[in-house]
Amino acid sequence: MLPYATLVEVEAALGRSLSFSEAVWFRYSARMPDYLLYCHNIIFLFAIFTLAPLPLALIELGLPASVSPFKIQPKVRHPPTSFFQCYKGVMRVFTLVIGPLQLASYPIIKFVGIGTGLPLPSFWEAALQLLVYFLVEDYFNYWIHRLLHTEWGYEKIHCIHHEFTAPIGFAAPYAHWAEVLLLGVPSFVGPALVPCHTIIFWLWMVLRQLEAIETHSGYGPRPTS
């Protein structure tokens, strides 16, 4: 919740007029508690997990021949039940693990300094923050992933993620609850090291999940023999 009642008060505090995006943010967030703003993240993640993989899934089910040349494993075709079972598994983990984790992590988010106030960050500030987040997340994700590919890690945890040997976008977050927790940590490390505005935190979470969905989509350059 912003400590200003009117746009005039904000502009007086900042010593300048608000930009269009800042004015929109003020009107939306001025009377909304910070906790509710943070909880928007759950809505965004649900929408991404549900909608981002959907177009390719529908095309693959309805017009498989048109997309086969672009698939890494063109001979593998998943039936509709596979897509549904995958999505159902993702939503189960989302409901029991991801959602509660997002709700419970709010005190940490506030502690590290992720705020909701004004002014909004500039384009370059946001771009540099996102670059740091991607680099940090990629580094820690790599080592956790290697740990999960040890004999114990794979048999006890990671094997669930590999049930879809021909991956689909919906399978990006399809995993054991422990893996979801482990791989969720690197996503928070970057913002903890380089705190940002809540809007950038939302954007980071959306972009990170879109990257994971694209990676698991099953489409891309085919390996050469």
Automatic annotation (TrEMBL):
GO MF term (any one): oxidoreductase activity
GO biological process, one term: lipid biosynthetic process
Localization annotation: Endoplasmic reticulum membrane
Keywords assigned by UniProt, alphabetized: Endoplasmic reticulum, Lyase, Membrane, Transmembrane, Transmembrane helix
Domain Fatty acid hydroxylase positions: 131-218
One GO cellular component term noted in the UniProt record for this chain: endoplasmic reticulum membrane
InterPro entries on file: Fatty_acid_hydroxylase, Sterol_Desaturase_Related
Pfam families to which the protein is assigned, alphabetical: FA_hydroxylase (PF04116)
Enzyme class: lyase
Membrane topology value: Multi-pass membrane protein
EC number: 4.1.99.5
Domain of life: Eukaryota
Xref: PANTHER family: STEROL DESATURASE
Similarity comment: Belongs to the sterol desaturase family.
Protein name stated in the entry: aldehyde oxygenase (deformylating)
Organism of origin: Zingiber officinale (Ginger)
